[in-house]
Design a protein that fits this description.
The chain is an alpha/beta fold. The chain has helices at residues 2-38, 45-69, 90-100, 116-121, 184-191, 194-201, 224-233, 269-275, 296-303, 315-318, 333-344, 346-353, 362-368, 379-393, and strands spanning 77-80, 111-112, 129-133, 148-152, 167-171, 179-181, 213-217, 239-241, 255-257, 278-282, 306-309, 325-326. The strands form two sheets. A six-stranded parallel sheet has the order 2-1-3-4-5-6, with helices on one face. A six-stranded parallel sheet has the order 9-8-7-10-11-12, sandwiched between helices.
């Protein structure tokens, strides 16, 4: 019995001895690893930061490489917002999406999620895309929608583009990982027929108005700066009213009615038809803010008239400044004198009317209008797809 007890005691002691060595070696190994990370005596901060930067650079290269391989390709198109007053923007958003994603299902007739009943009878997935006009009614909040939400705005800036984990924005905003700066004018261009687009792009196909009358002003939102300009222009020649607004002076004897009128139901294309009888069209923006450019000047160019315009300075990177008159409301005399000169000099007017429309030709097309591969190599299309693909990568 004593022999057995001694044998067991030695075995236990030997086990404890080896266990102690194992624990000690393990502790030293862990201490060494920790020292490499946090102990300044083991590794200088400079070396550590360089290693971190190299890792981040490697990760960034991996993400860039993956961006070329992993693209968000939505299966079904959903839409929010009524087809009433808010719905006037629906065709613009839908047309951009179908240009960027021509294979998407329900592209021509997006599945509505405006009412709660719409949500119950449909089953959207993480691979679907929801288009929504900024602040329009929707039965499903973007954070609840399982797929990706793309919000559009023609005239309003998105003041907070951090809302919605899988929500992205297209409108008159700064470019960011979640937002792409696109003017309403550019979305209007995307709605034009190929032949209409050619008339803007190809100088040899530029339209020319019939030049029967001096000037037309078609607006339903009577902003003071436009009304004052209209009154001043009425001193140069006979001016025509094509909308609800006709200056601040309200002297009917000095304002004539256009035979064609602005018709909201027919859309802005009706304005292009109206403008073609006039040498000039007053098409100032209603809202003066950075990056905001509406369809007004585009309609004037489509008609062949010379636009009289005021708005964001970005216009000069899109349209040839020699092809229109920039009317500075803070200093109107230079524009008024120039318009009076053109009205009295047919040769000078024809030179302005004959100018190319775009500021930089094909470069302008690629930068501002390339929603499809057929225009500018699809640069904007790629930027939209890359933005939405951030959702896949991160």
């Amino acid at each position: 019995m004593a022999v057995i007890s001694l044998f067991l005691t030695r075995r236990v002691s030997l086990f404890v001895y080896h266990l102690g060595w194992l624990l000690l070696l393990s502790f030293k190994e862990q201490s060494s690893c920790l020292g490499q990370i946090v102990d300044p005596q083991m590794m200088s901060p400079t070396v550590r930061f360089e290693e971190i930067s190299q890792v981040e650079l490697k990760n960034e290269k991996t993400r860039s490489h993956n961006a070329e391989e992993i693209q968000f390709e939505p299966e079904n198109l959903y839409a929010c917002g009524s087809y009433g007053q808010e719905g006037v923007y629906a065709p613009f958003a839908k047309n951009i999406v179908t240009s960027v994603f021509p294979e998407i299902k329900h592209g021509e007739n997006p599945i509505s999620l405006t009412n709660r009943s719409d949500v119950l009878k449909n089953n959207p997935t993480k691979n679907d895309l929801l288009i929504k006009y900024w602040k329009s009614s929707c039965a499903l909040h973007p954070d609840v929608f399982p797929g990706v939400t793309l919000e559009f705005s023609g005239e309003m800036i998105f003041y907070d583009t951090t809302l919605g984990k899988r929500t992205y924005y297209i409108g008159p905003n700064d470019d960011s990982p979640k937002s792409l700066s696109v003017s309403f004018m550019a979305t209007k261009f995307n709605l034009l027929t190929p032949s209409e687009q050619e008339r803007i792009i190809d100088h040899s196909m530029k339209p020319k108005s019939l030049k029967k009358r001096f000037l037309v002003y078609a607006a339903s939102n009577c902003r003071a700066h436009r009304e004052i300009a209209f009154d001043a222009l009425s001193q140069i020649g006979d001016v025509y009213q094509g909308g609800e607004c006709w200056g601040l002076k309200k002297e009917r004897s000095s304002v004539k009615l256009s035979t064609l009128r602005f018709d909201r139901d027919k859309g802005s294309n009706n304005n292009a038809l109206m403008y073609r009888n006039y040498r000039f069209a007053l098409v100032m923006e209603s809202t003066i803010s950075e990056r905001y450019i509406s369809e007004k000047i585009l309609n004037a160019f489509l008609s062949g008239t010379v636009p009289i315009w005021y708005g964001a300075p970005e216009i000069f990177d899109i349209f040839n400044r020699q092809a229109f008159v920039y009317y500075n409301v803070s200093d109107p005399e230079p524009a008024l004198n120039y318009i009076a000169y053109l009205e009295s000099n047919t040769t000078a007017y024809d030179e302005v009317q004959g100018q190319p429309i775009l500021a930089h030709g094909v470069e302008t097309v690629a930068k501002y209008f390339s929603f499809s591969d057929a225009l500018g190599g699809g640069q904007l299309k790629k930027r939209i797809k890359d933005m939405l693909s951030n959702d896949v990568l991160y």
